[in-house]
Structures are given as structure tokens and as C-alpha cells.
Amino acid sequence: MKALFSPLATFGRYLQLMAKVFSRPERFRMYWKQYIKEMGKLGIDSIGIVLMISFFIGAVICIQMKMNIQSPWMPRFSTGYTTREILLLEFSSSIMCLILAGKVGSNIASEIGTMRVTQQIDALEIMGVNSASFLILPKILGLVTMIPILVTFSMVAGFGGAYAICLSGILTTEDLTYGLQHSFNAWFVWMGYIKSFFFAYIIASVSAFYGYTVDGGSVEVGKASTDSVVHCSMLILFADIFLTQILS
Amino acid sequence: MIEIRSVFKDFGDREVLKGISSTFPAGQTNLIIGQSGSGKTVLMKCIVGLLDPSRGQILYDGRDFVTMNKKERALLRREMGMIFQSAALFDSMSVLENVMFPLDMFSSMTLRERTHRAQQCLDRVNLIDAQDKYPDELSGGMQKRVAIARAIALNPRYLFCDEPNSGLDPKTSLVIDALIHDITVEFNMTTIINTHDMNSVMGIGDSIIFIKEGRQEWTGDKTQVATSDNQALTDFIFASDLLKKARQAFV
């Protein structure tokens, strides 16, 4: 019975925290300042890792498609076509958000968790500041704002990686370009953006929940950081199934 | 003035506070002393509202904090300042930004006025030269002084200090004690200090309550501590052989 009610109790506490988070800010100016800061910290600072991973994965997908799909019976553009579909439909939104759950999620959980154990959150509460809203709301809004930019960078870098493979001579740029443009459906790009908004919300809110509810010391902060990454990843994968069903 | 009446606090089956009543007048330093685990931190948390007491009243100049709604509590909290055991400065902000934070959040001052006020507070704790530094660049004593500056930025009526000398050397502890005492008198604040530092007890204990196992065991001031015949208090204050000998000589 306990195993059944424990996740429900956790979900209840998550909802209670979110009710606190989405309450009216005490001073918009301070929240705005935090929001700008968080966009930089969670979004701009992630561009590097997104570009690097997307470039290499784009290149690897292109090689794999060329080696495993292409045959005399398949059109030459199929490599570019399948590379585009994989990047647009899954990699640049879902897999990229799984990567961000590791980078951004652990960062949020450990930052807020450390603030909890060093009494910085208590200090905010004593001052009369709604600490949950002040710390978490700018992070959620900051990441949700930045995620389309990160998704766009990921798509572009992935295609860049695929084009880089053309330099090795296994594929011509004409074939790749033709494949990338073949039967292009713009909705797939929007689908990636829509999914990423949900994933960004999951990453920021779930990690913040684990950080905010830390009780103890550095060991618990580490555990909260790990838990946040694990739960964010699981929730992103679950949400991906539902969103793909709904949006396809 | 803060008055607490029959405050109880339990965590499930464990009763930590067992009906504590006391009055903490304004303009003097009120000390809560007791062994680790005696319940003094829980009492402090109940007074400032980080924990809700199971029973009892906490009156801030007659206003009952326990029965207040969220909005009233938030307003009253703007009249409070607190210095935490760990200083609890915001790591991501400079010293000046830390002190300006409550002003940014709750005052209607212009940026120039806020900066001036924060610099005044830093000057009061002799840290004006460190305004651009970050908390991790400061010593423990300096961090506590910044915490004091931040706590007094909004001219609070009530100041709370949770073991302000924890982790500090005796000389720095005296500086912090003197600063808290001077500020209390200067601004006529109601100051409550949670401590087990004997220098603080003998130096700035204008009013002292001694808690043992969640009960108020003794009440008095610094002049009465040494001569008290309360065995539990004497065992706690004069725990070491050296202090026992000093007490015998004094008595």
C-alpha cells in the first residue's frame, strides 16, 4: 500500500508547490531580473553542448542511414530524407531535452537544494518573500522561453553534421540536399517545438521540486540532483509517447 | 515586545516544546540558552513562523502571529530581520546586492536611495570596502556582519539571531555580540538571540531564558547567572572544570 501511496503523496506535494510557484509575484521588477538571468544561465549556457551533440549525432545518423538503408533498390535521397525525419521528429526535441534534463535539471536541483540546506530559502521566507515563486517561476519561464531557440540550434547543427559527412565523399551534397527537402512537412518542425515546451516545463518544475524539498545536507542534495534527472527523463519519455500520439 | 504564551510543539509522538511562556522586551538583547537538542532552535523557528506551534500564542506587540493569515504574516515579516547560524547570504549576489535585496523587494525607494541605504548599513558594520565582493570571498565573521547589515536594511522592529557566534573565534564573537547589542539599543529593536556561547551570556544577556528538554527551566539576566542556585543551569553554564573553579572564586 505504501508503495502505491508514496508516488501519489509526492505528486500531491508537487501540485502544492506549483500552486505556490504560480502565485502573484511580490515585485515584478525583481522577478523580471531573475527571469533574464535564468534565460542566460539555463538557455544561453546550454547552446554549446546542444550544438556539439547535435552536430555529431546528425553526422552519425547520416552515416548510419547511408550504410544501413541505402541500396541499389532505394533512391539516393533516402539518406537525407531519413536523417531529416529523425532529427526533426525525435532528436532535436525529445532526445535533446533528455540531454538537457541531465545538464539543466541537475543544475536546478542542486542549486535550489544547496540554497535550502544553507538556509538561504529560510532567509527569503523570513523576509516575507514567496521563495518558491521567486526561485522557481523565473526558471520555468526562462527555460520555456529558451527551448525553441535550443531546438532550432539543434536542428541546424544536426543538418550541419550531416553535411560535414559529405566531405568524406560517401554522399554527395546534392543527394543530401534533395533528401532533406523531399516531401518536407513543416508541421514536423512545429511538432518538435510544441513537444519541447512540455519537456522544458517538466525539466524546470520537476528538478526545482526535488531541490526545493531537500531535507538534510550535501548527501541529500546529491540524491535530489540524481532523482531529478531520473524522474525528468522518465516523465519526458512518457510525455513523448502521449504527445506524439496527439500531435501526429 | 514579543510575548510567547504556553507554546507547545510536537513532531508526531515527540514533544519538543512543553509550554514555554516568556516576554522579550524591546531595546534589550534577549537570550535563549540551552544544550543542543533542548528545543531552542525549534522555539526560535516557531517565533519567526518557520514552524507552526502545536498550541500557544506568539504575540508581536499584541498581534498574534499564530492566528494571522498569509497576507498579514507576510506584512509582519517585513518588520523582522534574521541572522542565521550559517549567515545564509545569497551566493550569486555581491555583498551590496545582498544588503539591497530586501530594499529591492519591499521598499519604494529609487535605485540611488536603495544603494545609499545599503551602503549606510554596510558602513554600520564596518564593511563598506567589501561591498563588491561575493560571500565566498569573505571570512565567517565578515559574512555574519553582512548578514547583520542585510537584517537591519529595512529598519526591522524585531531581530532574531540563531547562534550568531557559531564557528567564530572568541574575539570575532565579541565583535558580533557588541554589534548586535549596539544596534538593538540604537534602533530600540526587540532582539532574540539563540546561543550557547557563554561569552554572549555573560556579555550581552540583558534577559535570559534557559531551556532544558523543552521546558523553561530558569529566567534571569547576566548578573544572576553566576549566582543562580539552579543546578541544571549551573551544570550547563559552568560545564568545564576551569569555569567551575572560576564560579567558585566568583561566588
- Regarding quaternary structure, what we see is heterodimer
* N-to-C span of chain B: 33 Å
Please report the number of helical segments of chain A.
Answer: 9
Strand content of chain A: under 5%
Largest interface: A-B, 16 and 25 residues
- For the record, the CATH architecture of the largest domain in chain B stands as 3-Layer(aba) Sandwich
Strand content of chain B: 15-25%
Q: Helical content of chain A, roughly?
A: over 70%
- DSSP strand count of chain A: 0
Give start-end ranges of low-pLDDT stretches of chain B.
none
Biggest β-sheet strands, sense, barrel of chain A: none
Helical segment tally of chain B?
10
Radius of gyration of chain B over alpha carbons? 19 Å
Which strand order do you get reading across the main beta sheet of chain B? Answer: 6-7-8-3-9-10
CATH topology of the largest domain in chain B, anyone?
A: Rossmann fold
Q: What is the succession of H and E elements of chain A?
A: HHHHHHHHH
Instruction: Estimate the global geometry of chain B from the Cα principal axes.
Output: globular
Share of helix of chain B, binned: 40-55%
Number of domains of chain B: 2
Kindly name the structural category of chain A.
Answer: mainly alpha
- Major β-sheet profile of chain B: 6 strands, mixed
Secondary structure elements and pairings:
The complex is a heterodimer of chains A (248) and B (251).
Chain A: H1 2-21, H2 28-43, H3 47-68, H4 78-117, H5 120-127, H6 131-166, H7 173-181, H8 187-212, H9 218-247
Helix pairs in contact in A: 1-6, 2-6, 3-4, 3-6, 4-6, 4-7, 4-8, 4-9, 6-8, 8-9
Chain B: E1 2-11, E2 14-24, E3 28-33, H1 40-48, E4 55-60, E5 63-64, H2 70-77, E6 80-83, H3 95-106, H4 111-124, H5 140-152, E7 158-162, H6 170-187, E8 190-195, H7 198-204, E9 207-212, E10 215-220, H8 222-225, H9 231-237, H10 241-250
Parallel strand pairs in B: 3-8, 3-9, 6-7, 7-8
Antiparallel strand pairs in B: 1-2, 1-4, 4-5, 9-10
Helix pairs in contact in B: 3-4, 3-5, 4-5, 5-6, 6-7
